[in-house]
Amino acid sequence: MFRIAQEALNNVAKHSSADRVEMAIRRVNGHATLSVRDNGVGFDPKRGEASTTSGWGLLIMRERAEAVGAEFSLRANPNAGVQVTVQYDVKEGT
Fold first, then answer.
1. How many angstroms from the chain centroid is the CA of residue 62?
2. Strands (E), 1-94
3. Model-level pTM greater than 0.70?
4. Nearest partner of 9 among 66, 22, 90, 92, judged by Cα
5. Angle between helices 2-11 and 55-67 (to 10 degrees)
6. Residue 94: which residues within 8 A CB-CB, separation 6 or more?
7. 31-38 and 82-89 as β-strands: parallel, antiparallel, unpaired?
8. Is 15 in contact with 55 (CB distance < 8 Å)?
9. CA-CA distance, 76 to 66, in Å (whole number)?
10. pLDDT tens, 14-46?
């Protein structure tokens, strides 16, 4: 989750023109959830993941999440910011 948060913040700095970023990490009922949301320019997610300028960061975040069995979701729209969410089932005692 640390590397995903790092990449999400890097994408905000490089691409979003945001003046506000909210990041939250929660652990509730065995689920750890990371959320990174900005109020930037957003993008069309259908075009963004295929683009070589922004697509690599999104692809890497998705692959990192899937590699550990986490669920990755992306909500983005032009002129409406971006929200990256990762949810991971945490085993007891970890």
1. 8
2. 21-28, 31-38, 71-76, 82-89
3. yes
4. 22
5. 170
6. none
7. antiparallel
8. no
9. 20
10. 999 999 999 999 999 999 999 999 999 999 877
pLDDT-based confidence at residue 91 (cuts at 50, 70, 90): confident
| DSSP string across 50-65 | T-TTTHHHHHHHHHHH
Nearby residues of 68 by Cβ (< 8 Å), 6 or more positions away: 88
In 3D, which of 73, 58, 51 has the Cα closest to residue 7?
58
Tokens linked to 50: 């295929």
Q: Which of these, 89, 91, 84, 74, lies nearest to 21 by C-alpha position?
A: 84
